[in-house]
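Sequence and fold
=================
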Amino acid sequence: MHKFLLALVISLLSVAASAEREEYRVVLKDHIFKPAEIQVPANRLVYLVIENKDTSAEEFQSSDLHREKIIAAGKTGKIKIGPLKAGSYHFLGAFNPDTAQGIVIVK
């Protein structure tokens, strides 16, 4: 009986943890992030899920967020950000910085 209760508690905690994980999807196509502006809540751990629909790799880069990640062509990358204070955090595609730009607005 104790093993069953322990398994149930672990299962419930796992569901609660995944429910708290907020993901924000961004598509990279033609070297442009869409949407280019993402609004996220302050003081919460969130994930940016970047889907690269281009035929070449791109490096997600943000000195504001202190993150860098290469995302291969046709692949998806997940980037953990936060908890963040309210403000604006810029990001770009390092291989195409003139067109691949975006901003995270934290409220």
Remarks:
- The chain has one domain: 22-106.
- The chain has one helix and nine strands.
- The longest strand covers residues 22-29.
- The radius of gyration is 17 Å.
